[in-house]
Design goal:
By secondary structure, the chain is mainly alpha-helical. About 85% of the residues lie in helices and about 0% in strands.
Length: about 450
């Protein structure tokens, strides 16, 4: 019986991999893109409203730092808690809860009357934002054919910079009229309205349903597969609906620290930690840095738009070359370019045309490695350790984002605008060291 189920599982996966992407799958992809769109808006909201909040409550960079870090800390905890919850209660349910949480608390941020209330609201907003992305990526991956999985996953993540761009444009135009409170209210109302669409349209993964209880969910699985495989016969759908969970080799945290993997583990962690630290320090402090350099708050908010736009464009270029070129070469070259651009920014002063050009360039040099890092884990570990390795790497990246967000205000106050940009070269250099340490030759895992 077990062999029969495994054969049917392989049949279901093979059918999905071979079939054209159905309208139902495209619908699910765009729903997930919409979630990351609002997620990106809310993630960056504190960045382009930071200068206005600082003015409203007479806060310096050090006092503003906890408000920025709170959301990042919430995202780290949300990725761990809601991410694992998605493996217990389902992808759909976990995503719906995540959107509800970050929508409600973003809305409440707009009604906060003190920095303390903003801090609490941003923390809980971060919980929802951090939990949404890993779960919806699992959903996209499980509903995608293998040949397009990488593209669809990357495409769904493009909502993050796109949402940041939308928020930056909104802030630059409407901040004087609706204030910082209005930005957060918009960031709360829109995902809550979208949640109504998700309640009706967002599906569960048939593979998750099979893992939890094949007998109980077989009719649901059959209905989902029928929508994903509209040209398949009813008999094929019925047979494929009896999918069983894929068996994989067991892996653990301690396996990552075995002598043969220890170098790669430390190298991957170093790369993730340092790249995320530099990227989030830039994203979350850039409007404040530009305002400190002399730009009005509404124009400073455009920095978020400029830094994210090239990242979207070149992300597709990077996605094309990643399977075709050595990942380490691409990462090293991109990070080195980021170092050169940040040094140029430190000397650009108030030449605003040059400054904004360099900000766009730094989005390529520091932002694009975020895409390539997903491939690093695949080359650094054998198949049996990739999931565990990726999970811990992302955890280290989130930790780096907290450190970067926390240090940004202190660096700006202590060393000024030029010192802030120069300081970015340190984590970028360490990230290059991490990349060069990674061994990407093929490895195997033996199991007892």
């Amino acid at each position: 019986m077990e062999n029969t189920l495994q054969t049917q599982a392989a049949t279901a996966r093979a059918l999905l991999d071979a079939a054209p992407i159905s309208r139902f799958q495209w619908q699910t992809f765009f729903l997930c893109f919409g979630i990351t769109l609002f997620d990106g808006f809310d993630t960056q909201a504190i960045a382009f409203t930071g200068p206005a909040i600082a003015s409203a409550f007479n806060l310096g960079p050090n006092e503003l730092t906890p408000l920025i870090v709170a959301g990042t800390l919430g995202m780290a905890l949300g990725a761990i808690s809601l991410g694992s919850l998605g493996d217990r209660i389902g992808r759909r349910t976990a995503v719906l809860w995540a959107v509800l949480v970050f929508g409600v608390f973003s809305l409440l941020t707009g009604f906060a009357r003190s920095p303390h209330e903003i801090l609490l609201a941003r923390f809980f907003t971060g919980l929802g934002m951090g939990g949404a992305v890993p779960v919806l990526l699992s959903l996209v991956s499980e509903l995608s054919p293998a040949r397009h999985r990488g593209l669809l996953i990357t495409g769904s993540l493009l909502g993050l910079p796109a949402g940041a761009i939308g928020g930056g444009l909104l802030a630059s135009r409407l901040l004087p009229q609706i204030g910082w409170q209005g930005i957060f209210i918009v960031g709360g109302v829109l995902p809550l309205l979208f949640l109504l669409v998700l309640l009706v349209r967002l599906p569960e993964s048939p593979f998750f349903l099979a893992v939890k209880n094949l007998g109980l969910h077989q009719e649901k699985i059959q209905a989902l597969l029928a929508r994903m495989l509209p040209t398949a016969t009813p008999e094929t759908i019925k047979a494929s609906a009896q999918i069983a969970p894929e068996k994989t080799a067991q892996a653990s945290f301690t396996a990552l620290l075995q002598p043969r993997f220890l170098r790669n583990t430390l190298a991957v962690w170093l790369t993730y930690f340092c790249n995320w630290a530099a990227w989030f320090m830039l994203l979350l402090w850039l409007p404040t840095v530009l305002k400190t350099a002399g730009l009005p708050a509404e124009q400073a908010a455009l920095g978020t738009v400029v830094i994210n736009s090239p990242a979207i464009l070149f992300c597709l270029v990077m996605a094309y070359y990643l399977p075709r070129k050595p990942v380490r070469v691409l990462l090293t070259a991109t990070l080195a370019f980021g170092i050169a651009v940040t040094l140029a920014l430190s000397m650009a002063g108030s030449q605003w045309t040059l400054v904004f050009f360099l900000i766009g360039a730094v989005g390529v040099g520091v932002g694009l490695p975020q895409i390539a890092l997903n491939y690093v884990v695949m080359e650094a570990y054998p198949t049996a350790l990739r999931a565990t390795g990726a999970g811990w790497a992302i955890g280290m990246g989130r930790t780096g984002s907290i450190v970067g967000a926390g240090l940004g205000g202190w660096l700006l106050k202590t060393f000024g605008v030029a010192g802030f940009y120069t300081a970015l070269t340190v984590p970028l250099l360490l990230a290059i060291v991490g990349v060069l340490m990674i061994r990407t030759k093929k490895m195997t895992v033996t199991t007892a």
